[in-house]
Design brief:
The complex is a heterodimer of chains A (110) and B (118). By secondary structure, chain A is mainly beta. Chain A is built from one helix and nine strands. In chain A, 4% of the residues lie in helices and 45% in strands. Chain B has 118 residues and is mainly β. Chain B is globular and about 40 Å long. The chains are: A mainly beta (110), B mainly beta (118).
Chain lengths: 110, 118
């Protein structure tokens, strides 16, 4: 099954805003929205948002997510060094009944 | 606080069967509306979904792995299990179990590295 499309890397300066994108199709992102996961080297993924813009308890308000059509976005404001990590989007493909992931975006905080 | 912990051999020979267990503590596999998944990550690469299960036994599998994978829940022990048959080097990965409401994987194990090699 095809996965979701994410840029391999995004670089942004400290204290600035980074926006990460995730492109899917009508059956996955466009249907039920996306979830976003953050993964630091050597650690398991951590859920940042689900169903487009719901934040689990304890997730910083600097993090927000949205969706426009088949594209999901994750925005992180006031970038901090600890935001440097890999970010994955995921969604359920309602047509194929599969859980698809993006290839991940490495966020580099300059 | 729900916690998940994967366990199993870290080394499996090619053509053999990889078997892993994920033990859930601080909660139960029978929690309503909670789904349980296996996901893997080859070294230095992205996440790959393997399967998702619900307490009723309903299971969805990745089409690319379906012919070789069996997953199950033991609700009496609060354990998930994964069996992957006929492994090759391409199955070398960190294997994670995860759980939470539908498409909301709130809880993850630390992951266990499985190397397929002679």
């Amino acid at each position: 099954q095809a996965g979701l499309t994410q840029p391999p890397s995004v670089s942004e300066a400290l204290r600035q805003t980074a926006t990460l994108t995730c492109i899917g199709n009508n059956d996955d992102v466009g249907n039920g929205g996306a979830a976003w996961l953050q993964q630091h080297q050597g650690h398991p993924p951590k859920l940042l948002s689900y169903r487009n813009n719901n934040r689990p308890s304890g997730i910083s308000e600097r993090i927000s997510a949205s969706r426009s059509g088949n594209t999901a976005s994750l925005t992180i404001t006031g970038l901090q060094p600890e935001d440097e990590a890999d970010y994955y989007c995921s969604a359920w493909d309602n047509s194929l009944n599969v859980w698809v992931f993006g290839g991940g975006t490495k966020l580099i905080v300059l | 606080q729900l916690q998940l912990q994967e366990s199993g051999p870290g080394l499996v020979k090619p053509s053999e069967t990889l078997s892993l267990t994920c033990t859930v503590s601080g909660g139960s596999l029978t929690t309503n509306h909670y789904y349980w998944a296996w996901i893997r990550q080859p070294p230095g690469k992205g996440l790959e979904w393997i399967a998702t299960m619900y307490k009723t036994g309903t299971t969805d599998y990745s089409p690319s792995l379906k012919s070789r994978v069996t997953v199950s829940l033991d609700t009496s022990k609060d354990q998930l299990s994964l069996r992957l048959r006929s492994v090759t080097a391409a199955d070398t990965a960190i294997y994670f179990c995860a759980g939470g409401p539908w498409q909301q994987p709130d809880y993850w194990g630390q992951g266990t590295l499985v190397i397929v090699s002679t």
